[in-house]
Please model this.
Amino acid sequence: MEKRQKIYEGKAKILYTTDDPGLLIQYFKDDATAFNAQKKGTIAEKGIMNNRIATKIFEYLGREGVKTHFVKLLSDREMLVKRVEIVPVEVIVRNRAAGSLCRMLALPEGLELDGPTLEFCYKKDELGDPLINEYHIRALKIATDEEVGKITKMAFGINEALKKFFLKLNIELIDFKLEFGRHQGHIILADEISPDTCRLWEVGTGKKLDKDRFRRDMGNIEEAYQEVLRRVTR
Ligand code: UDP
Model:
């Protein structure tokens, strides 16, 4: 697959066109940002680890019947994906309170929620990705009601599948962020799922195996990502 031009560069990934107009190369960088890019750094080999971890997760979700943009792993830092039009909302699913939910509602970290929750954040860097609801999404024509319904159903389904997947690896899925895209008139899962986009706690010890180690300068960041990679590939 021939790599042509860079069409998008985000905080952690770059997208390149290929000789096939329907396919893109998603390249994973080592750069890490937190708190709306106020904190910046790099995590050694993160791109390589996240590319492999995301591949394993997309392959698993595919087997579980979830439609995703993933096509195949290409190299250490590259995967081939279907070209989609990204719906500009971050979809956050939570099983326990952490991060911004704790800040917003003054909840203790780790509080078990009585059933999963769903949030939408409008993807607008200059605004810091504000929380919005489905009425805003409709009123601003960000997505149709039908798309929001589909995204909601898929997000909760993916939560159930991922909780099961990680529990087998002795990891509890606390929360995560998804992005969806429009592809041939359908909504499919896009972007990535990795320790950058999930909170993952080791069962029993509660040890954090995700980007919170970077956000909070907890150390052993590479080791935590490596540990997730080791478990998903064993
Ligand atoms: N998340 C993400 N990208 C974002 C915002 C959040 O991947 O731009 C993930 C984050 O890693 C966590 C979940 O979504 O797993 C919920 O994040 P939260 O809203 O608590 O925000 P944070 O405290 O991470 O700023």
Residues 121 and 131 are 4 Å apart (CA to CA). Residues 86-220 form a domain with the D-amino Acid Aminotransferase; Chain A, domain 1 fold (CATH 3.30.470.20). The pocket of uridine-5'-diphosphate is lined by residues 90, 92, 98-101, 129, 175-177, 197-199, 211 (CB under 6 Å). DSSP finds six helices and 14 strands in the chain.
